[in-house]
Write a structure and sequence with these properties.
nine-stranded antiparallel beta sheet; alpha+beta; elongated; 6 helices; about 270 residues; about 15% helix
Length: about 270
């Protein structure tokens, strides 16, 4: 009895097999033969790597023509949304991307979507102000002018994220040349969520990267970041995750806040 080579199977069957692997495996499979390339590049394969609600997410995009993303192939859409390639901004206060290796959901809650204690109104104390930074994906970021304490919060529903995934929250910021209050004083961070039976613990990190660790680190996109904490999203979870920043020991100035990013925690 002759053995059947896998390349002799219908293209649809090969596509189904490849869809059970990873995006990296699909790219490798496309190099085997023209039959494998046709199967590996199919919409069937790459749709399986995209979130089930990707069309609803794209519909909220601020792109000039969000529908244009629905007209490209699933493979092109996947690579368009990879986190180190392109973010799409949703409703002006949040951005969306796919994590580069796993294809899982990533969000950043922009400064306009955060809860920031202090007045932004010009005729009051003016602890904070809105400003434009070319390196930001958002139209505006928050600039700290002068304040005695920090109190910043972001909230996100776990149903928006990829199930079966450990996520981490990152405070994304930059320090200006004329700044004070961040070189020695640790800023406290905490991530808490509804279904956790363990009380979330605050931990301190110095934002100035020129100081001793633990300290903020450069991201490679002009901004810096601090890991705030992590949490696991189970299948069917519908909890609210709260990411908090606080510090009340002395005056501070010269901080730019782009937002808080929620992305899968990568194995080191």
């Amino acid at each position: 009895m002759k053995k059947m080579m896998i390349s002799m199977l219908p293209v649809e069957c090969i596509s189904h097999i490849i869809s059970l692997t990873s995006p990296r495996d699909a790219c490798r499979s496309s190099l085997v033969s023209s039959v494998f390339r046709e199967a590996a590049d199919s919409d069937f394969v790459w749709k399986s790597y995209l979130p089930p609600d990707i069309k609803q997410i794209i519909s909220k995009s601020l792109l000039p023509s969000p529908s244009s993303l629905n007209s490209i192939s699933m493979k092109d859409l996947y690579y368009y949304l990879r986190i180190h390639h392109r973010h799409i901004v949703l409703d002006g206060n949040m951005s969306f991307a796919l994590e580069e290796k796993s294809g899982k959901k990533c969000y950043m809650i922009g400064a306009r979507g955060l809860s920031i204690a202090g007045e932004f109104e010009e005729d009051k104390l003016g602890y904070w102000q809105w400003t434009t930074v070319p390196a930001s994906r958002f139209c505006e970021v928050a600039e700290l002018k002068n304040v005695l304490g920090l109190d910043i919060k972001a909230r996100i529903k776990t149903r928006m994220l990829s199930p079966g995934t450990t996520y981490a929250a990152y405070f994304v910021y930059q320090l200006q040349g004329c700044r004070f209050g961040f070189a020695r004083t640790p800023i406290e961070f905490r991530v808490s969520w509804g279904h956790s039976r363990v009380e979330a613990v605050w931990h301190g990190v110095v934002l100035d990267p020129s100081t001793v660790s633990p300290r903020g680190r450069y991201r490679g996109d002009w901004w810096m970041e601090v890991e705030m904490g992590e949490f696991f999203v189970k299948e069917g979870d519908d909890a609210t995750v709260e990411c908090s920043v606080r510090e009340v020991n002395g005056p501070k100035s010269g901080l730019l806040v782009e937002g808080i990013e929620i992305r899968p925690k990568l194995d080191v």
